[in-house]
Amino acid sequence: MSKTIEVTDLVKVYRNGVRAVDGISFSVEKGEIFGFLGPNGAGKSTTIKILVGLVNATEGRLLVNGIDITKHQAEIKRATGYASQETAIDDRLTAWENITLQGHYYHLSGRQIKSRSEEILKMFDLYERRNDLAETFSGGMLKRLDIAEALIHRPQILFLDEPTLGLDVQTRQVIWTYIERLRREQGMTIFVTTHYMEEADTLCDRVTIIDKGIIKAIDRPEALKAQLGGDVITVLFGDNGDPASVLEKINQLPQVLTIEKNGNGTNRIMVRKEGERIVPQLFALCDKEGITIDAVSLKKASLDDVYLHYTGHAMRDADESREMHSKARMMRGRARRR
Q1: Residue 39 pLDDT more than 50?
Q2: Beta bridge partners of 256
Q3: Lowest mean pLDDT: which of 209-213, 238-242, 283-287?
Q4: Which domains does the chain have, with CATH numbers?
Q5: Residues 172-177: what's their mean pLDDT?
């Protein structure tokens, strides 16, 4: 497969000294749904904005369709579509007026705008609502319209920055269906940023784990999970003894890959397979040493475990506050426009 995006040693340092992106390198194949997974401030949005020409890189080599984006930004903008975290929709206009306005930004002819707007609105199941004001749309409909606008000039590559941020689970799945359809029917290359584990796992062909501007891992979701092993045992010991000797003996078992201590006081035991056989041995060793177990769980390795393994911290803690911030920001934006 040919590479659509090639990034080498990308660095972005803002004027305030913040090093948002710290020497990352990666490539995206043609027709791939490629994901950046990480929390707010990881460098995801900065990377996308650099690739679509909205922000200048401090250092690095950047090719899109083999074109150096620092030298040919006009060509890059014609080849790419971009939908940011905040929808670029005017609530006072209809769906048709919003997408028509976007067509004029790309200097399309009236005939092109009419035919393409009809085509795209039908693709996203918005054609019947084309003459309704955007202020009457749900959050999911607004996001679909926003993505539709990014397609009016028929780009080869689509960049979606947190495409389902603030949406409920059912609406997220609807958006995923439209994204997969774009790739399947049009062979489009799609670059997605997200902090939702399920979104990265379900939607992306390959996932990049990025944290604090540094890439920690890149691979298929299944391959990333397989690297950790088949099962994950999480155990919280009581405070009546030192479990070090127990963990040392468990670590010597051939099925055990690694043992890591989490920040919340629990221990994660990565097991190649048959984790259900390790748990009884763990209890037996603790009983022999006089150490209690306050809690224990057994599950298959997930992207949550992969993320925790590579970054040393979980991402769930920031999710709720970020969702609330996103929704509040959307409401404030609508209030200002009225």
Answers
A1: yes
A2: 271
A3: 238-242
A4: 3-224 (3.40.50.300), 230-300 (3.30.70.100)
A5: 93
